[in-house]
Write a structure and sequence with these properties.
Order of helices and strands: HHHHHHHHHHHHHHH
Strand content: under 5%
Oligomer: single chain
Number of helices: 15
Number of strands: 0
Largest sheet: none
Length: about 260
């Protein structure tokens, strides 16, 4: 009651929102209630006291009774860090904590996707993404960040060898990640790594079911085994399989004629 009275006195007669915010924030930490939080937001806006407000919310979180209320307050906290407090790294931390509490929380996932590039732009992106991947609260988050790291390695750093390693790491976590498979195929083609290219094409063939999509994979495999790896028998097998799909394949037919 005393803190309430002091806060109201500063907010009203004394017209000192800073002191009012300090008093009522202390009260909120002891007794977190939605009505009181709404008052704190108004006072923080009046005096730009967002540091006091975010600190207050952080301190109050353990005392909030239910997970639903805690999630609501954490979203408010993340919004404060992302917006008026202008602290994207802190907002990222809150969204990550939210995903531990609620792994399927769409708003938190969207927040991470929105803030990762912004936070990375403030420093070395490669170091940032590598560190964020280690901090990831869930497997989907880790995979998303590793994709950003690999893209940065390819497009900005031109470090194709390290990018290949990152895509391999993704495929260890998500063996059927077609984005990683396709990106790695491009890198293997670029570097003429035909043995690894053939192995990865065969891996993609295992998860691809549509005949129209399987045919070019089989044809490319046939050409690699014929022209690059000099394994004629395997090349014939893939050319025949491509033709058996019932999809017109002039390259496969031409390959069989050569062999």
């Amino acid at each position: 009651p005393l803190l309430q009275e002091v806060g109201e006195l500063f907010a009203g007669v004394l017209r000192d929102p800073t002191q009012a915010l300090t008093a009522l924030a202390e009260l909120y930490q002891r007794r977190p209630e939605n009505a009181l939080y709404a008052r704190l937001e108004i006072l923080a806006k009046q005096c730009q006291g967002y540091a006091v407000l975010t600190s207050c919310l952080e301190q109050a979180l353990p005392k909030i009774a239910t997970d639903n209320d805690r999630v609501q307050i954490m979203h408010r906290l993340a919004a404060l860090y992302e917006g008026p407090h202008d602290s994207p790294h802190e907002a990222l931390s809150v969204y990550r904590r939210l995903l531990i509490l609620r792994p399927d929380d769409v708003r938190s996932r969207q927040g991470l996707d929105r803030l990762l590039p912004l936070a990375a732009s403030s420093g070395n992106k490669l170091t940032f993404y590598a560190q964020e991947a280690e901090k990831a609260a869930s497997l989907p988050e880790k995979i998303t960040i590793l994709h950003r790291l690999a893209k940065e390695l390819v497009e900005s750093s031109k470090d194709y060898v390290r990018a290949q390693d990152v895509y391999r790491d993704i495929l260890k976590l998500a063996p059927d990640d077609t984005v990683a498979i396709d990106a790695l195929l491009l890198l293997f083609r670029r570097d003429h790594r035909y043995t690894e290219l053939a192995e990865l094409l065969e891996r993609k063939l295992q998860i691809q079911t549509e005949p129209a999509r399987r045919e070019p994979l089989m044809t490319e495999l046939g050409e690699i085994y014929e022209r690059k790896l000099h394994q004629g028998a395997r090349a014939i097998d893939y050319y025949l399989e491509a033709l058996r799909l019932g999809v017109a394949s002039a390259p496969a037919a031409a390959g069989l004629e050569r062999l």
